[in-house]
Amino acid sequence: MSGRNAQDFYPTPPQAAGALVRWWRWEVRQAPRAVLDPCAGVGCLLLPWAESGSEIVGWEEDHRIAAGAISGVAAGDGLAILDRAAEAGSKAAARSILGEGVDLIAVNPPYKRADRWVKSATSAAVAAGISVAAFMRCQWIDDGETLGRSVYRHSLVPSAIVRMPWRMSFNGGGADFATYAWHVWDGGRAQDPDDRPFGGGCLTYWARPALSSPEAEDLWSRGAALSRGEDLWQCRIPGT
Fold first, then answer.
1. What is the pLDDT of residues 27-78, one digit of tens each?
2. In angstroms, rounded to a whole number, what is the distance separating the alpha carbons of residues 75 and 41?
3. Which domains does the chain have, with CATH numbers?
4. CA-CA distance, 65 to 75, in Å (whole number)?
């Protein structure tokens, strides 16, 4: 696939995508007006938000994948747009770049570039005064120093970690050896990590698997087929 290494394209499983929506409803309560996924693929992460009533905005750097995605996902370099928002110079300008109604950036970043994506997403969220949730392996935090990762020291301390205590499959094959979590930052209440002893305020939650809609399951299965390298045009979303 052009624009993204096929090994870095792993669509978000429906139960994991839905877990963030359920946690947000329970903990934050006020639904986001709009949710942005800057690395959207076919839209698996965004669909549960659309089903819950939020507007959705997505960018996908691979034009062929974007052509088969759900409505609301367009071709675009999400990383570059996040960087533009982070450097906008004012909250109004950053919101204008991301989308006026966007209250949450939600992203399942390519694992090989996760640090870059998280730093750009959190920087953009701080600039716009909104929140960000990134879906990554639980040990991403633990491996930070050994792999030279600095996002927690140079960006934001997370506000919450929502763990998925079960192993899941991203491409319809065997389950991943790792467990995953949503790492959530509240960009509207950004503080210098040096002013927060022990990274205070970070809570851990445990999600439970739950049924997802047939539409979400179908969308993920098509994304999983693309992840396995199956022909793109045989996996297009109905109606696109």
1. 888 889 999 999 999 999 999 999 999 999 999 998 888 888 999 999 999 9
2. 10
3. 6-211 (3.40.50.150)
4. 8
- 55-62: long-range contacts, CB 8 A cutoff, minimum separation 24: 55/101, 57/98, 57/99, 57/102, 61/3, 61/4, 62/1, 62/2, 62/3, 62/4, 62/9
- Distant-in-sequence, close-in-space partners of 168: CB < 8 Å, separation ≥ 6: 13, 15, 16, 175, 176, 180
Alpha helices in 104-233 (DSSP H): 114-128, 139-142, 151-154, 214-227
187: phi then psi, degrees, rounded to nearest 5 = -65, -20
- The DSSP secondary-structure symbol of 143 reads T
Residue 133 three-state SS: strand
Residue predicted with more confidence, 195 or 64: 64
Map tokens 């903990």 to a residue: 27
Three-state DSSP state, 203: strand
Q: Look up residue 64 and give its two tokens.
A: 């062929």
d(CA 36, CA 40): 9
| CB of 42 closer than 8 Å to CB of 237 | yes
Q: Coil, helix or strand for 134?
A: strand
